[in-house]
Specification:
Radius of gyration: 22 Å
CATH topology of the largest domain: Peroxisomal Thiolase, Chain A, domain 1
CATH class of the largest domain: Alpha Beta
Structural class: alpha+beta
Largest sheet: 5 strands, mixed
Helix content: 25-40%
Strand order of the largest sheet: 4-5-6-3-7
Number of helices: 11
Number of domains: 2
Distance between the termini: 54 Å
Order of helices and strands: HHHHEEHEHEHHHEEEHEEEHEE
């Protein structure tokens, strides 16, 4: 189908948000900037922070993802509706190639989909005038949004998100809810670490379902349109479960931009509320960055990127003795293999010309 899209002349009457560069020069210099490079580094940092072994960690996150797959199997709008086992998700195979350690293909967002969603937002008065039955009404109760420090290099840790913690908890405060009060939850799920960080920061129990769609791997990840799908699915379920309270989260960039909304078929106690918490997030700690460093450092996190047949390069993020952060790459085949079997977070590394030597 040829839709014959054409750019219109002139400038927009209104622009939402900011078009911000989210890559620090230190990251650009080493060609680091794809989600498949950075989210695995968040994942490995979280594993190290929790003190898990590589096998135990892989088993745990594959079980988390298998739960998402089971939800997708019951979602009539999901792209992949065959439930996939945790063992299949974590096991390398011809259909589940390694992408970037520790993630195989089935732990990545699936944007190879053809999906669409739509929402209609109107007043109660307009809904009545249009003859929309009351049982189809779903109310947005409250919303918040905030972004973490735009450059990953400047963030205090690789395993947390002050923006999720502050904005996610604030939306619950605005609605008078606790995590235990939520009947339906959809946490943005481009990669397993995004779900884990959000759950830890908001206080969500990871033993409960944290998706209503099946997530971006199984329900489908149509880029920035995914959250329209999760809200639309939330509306369907809120209609089926009158009075249920639903939290939906959104994430953009590299765990960078976050938004939160609470919805229910029941009207809120107070009119819709939105609160700007960005100043609180901006006040959280940030790190300085060294564009290059010669000498020793401590590995904060890493990932191993795969080519068609074998590891191709390892990206390593390090902390210096003065607290600054710096980056390096490694292409030693033996080291890259070891990185997938042994814990390298916390190790000492020698840096020179942005090359890591162990």
């Amino acid at each position: 189908m040829n839709l014959n899209w054409q750019a219109l002349p002139g400038t927009p009457d209104r622009v939402f948000g900011e078009d911000k560069d989210m890559r620090h020069p230190a990251e650009k210099a080493l060609r680091i900037g794809q989600p498949i490079q950075l989210y695995p580094m968040f994942e490995n940092a979280l594993r190290h922070h929790l003190g898990e072994s590589i096998p135990a960690h892989l088993e745990r996150i594959s079980e988390l993802w298998a739960g998402f797959s089971r939800v997708a199997a019951d979602n009539p709008h999901a792209w992949l509706r065959n439930a996939v086992s945790a063992e299949t998700i974590r096991t390398i195979s011809p259909n589940n190639r390694p992408v970037s350690f520790p993630y195989p293909k089935l732990m990545n967002s699936n944007n190879n989909v053809d999906q669409g969603a739509a929402l209609i937002l109107c007043s109660e008065e307009r809904a009545r005038a249009l003859g929309i039955p009351r049982e189809k009404w779903v109310y947005p109760w409250a919303g918040t949004d905030a972004h973490d420090h735009y450059y990953v290099s400047n963030r205090d840790t690789f395993y947390g998100s002050p923006a999720i913690r502050i904005a996610g908890r604030r939306v619950l405060e605005l609605t008078g809810l606790t995590p235990a009060d939520l009947d339906l939850v959809d946490v943005y799920s481009c990669f397993p670490v995004a779900v884990q960080v959000a759950a830890r920061e908001i206080g969500l129990d990871t033993s409960r379902p944290l998706t209503i769609t099946g997530g971006l791997t199984f329900a489908g990840g149509p880029l920035n349109n995914y959250v329209m799908h999760s809200i639309a699915r939330g509306v369907e379920l809120a209609r089926e479960q009158p009075g249920a309270r639903c939290l939906i989260t959104a994430n953009g960039g590299y765990l960078t931009k976050h938004a939160f909304g609470v919805y229910s078929s029941e009207p809120p106690a107070r009119p819709f509320q939105h609160q700007d918490v960005q100043a609180e997030v901006d006040a959280t700690p940030a790190r300085d960055v060294a564009l290059t460093h010669t000498g020793t450092a401590t590995v904060e996190s890493y990932t191993v990127m795969y080519g068609a047949d074998a590891p191709s390069i390892a990206h390593v993020v390090c902390q210096l003795s003065d607290g600054r952060r710096t980056w390096a790459n490694c292409t030693d085949p033996d080291v890259m293999l070891a990185m997938t079997n042994e814990e390298f977070c916390g190790r000492s590394v020698r840096l020179a010309d942005n090359i890591a030597t162990f």
